[in-house]
Amino acid sequence: MSMAPSSSSSAESEPMMELNMTPLIDVMLVLIIMLITTLPVQNHSINLNMPTNSAAPKTEEPVVKTIDVDFDGTISWNGEVVTLPGLEVKLTEVAATPNQPEVHLRPNKLVAYKSVAAVMASAQRLGVTKIGMVGNEQFLSQ
Question: Is the whole-model pTM more than 0.90?
Answer without folding.
Answer: no
